[in-house]
Design brief:
By secondary structure, the chain is mainly beta. Helix content is about 15%, strand content about 60%. The chain has an 8-stranded antiparallel barrel. Strand 3 and strand 4 form a beta hairpin.
């Protein structure tokens, strides 16, 4: 019985040490901007908050101006963050949002669903830089976004 307890304790210790080494470091909070394609130059104010060592929520308040369409939107994403090496990570996420648009004499509101796939580097200073693809699909009879791979660069201050 004593050998079993020692073996279980050793296994638990090794498992805890391995988990501590592999634990993903996600900033408790990060605030910044996300600039990119979005079917025309667009920008977003971006806020991230961690839920665990490998999961976080991201909220983006954005604007868009292209192809005779002006739009504002609020998007929320749930993201899974996985380490590549040292301070370099990749992430994937799913989310939804709402917004409003003005396309000449046509305006209204819309809902959207979004996916997210990206990479990020966590500097030793409180700065996070990321590059991601976020296809969005809008729902409204008069306004629809395509499933193109909208590319964006993010810069966030971590706190």
């Amino acid at each position: 019985m004593k050998k079993i307890i020692i073996a279980v304790f050793a296994l638990f210790t090794i498992s805890a040490a391995t988990t501590a080494v592999q634990a993903q470091i996600i900033a408790k909070n990060a605030l910044g901007v996300r600039l990119g394609d979005n079917d025309g130059f667009g920008g977003e104010i971006s806020y991230q908050t961690s839920l665990s060592n490998s999961n976080r929520l991201e909220f983006d308040l954005g604007w868009r101006d292209s192809h005779n369409v002006e739009a504002f939107k609020l998007v929320g994403l749930y993201q899974w963050v996985m380490p590549i090496e040292d301070r370099f990570n990749w992430y994937v996420g799913l989310g939804a949002g709402v917004g409003s648009f003005n396309a000449g004499n046509n305006d209204g509101a819309f809902a959207l669903i979004a996916g997210d796939l990206g990479i990020e580097y966590n500097f030793k200073i409180p700065l996070l830089i990321s590059l991601d693809f976020r296809p969005e699909l809008g729902f409204n009879d008069n306004y629809r976004d395509d499933l193109g791979l909208d590319i964006a660069l993010g810069l966030r201050y971590q706190f």
